[in-house]
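note to self: dont lose this again. the chain is below, predicted strucutre after it. 91 aa total, dont forget to put it in the shared folder this time
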Amino acid sequence: MNFPALVEAFDDQFAASLVGAPAVRVVRDNRLEAISGLKAEIQRRVATGDLLSLEIDTVGISSLAGKYAGDPTLAWICDEAYKLRDAEPSE
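---
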């Protein structure tokens, strides 16, 4: 799993936090320790089920992409549309 993190200098130390969850934050003496501490905190929260990754179903027109790829009706509709287009006089 990948989680976006923000690392900032903070009062002669470094603070690393989980983007979108400011409560998931550690402060350490240097940047690498802050990143390592945040990674350990995220791992702890994942292990206890407090932090997890959810897959959300796509909403809107993009959820239809490829849905009817094998439907012969779609091919027939396209063929009919092309026939009508080709039958129109050119300008």
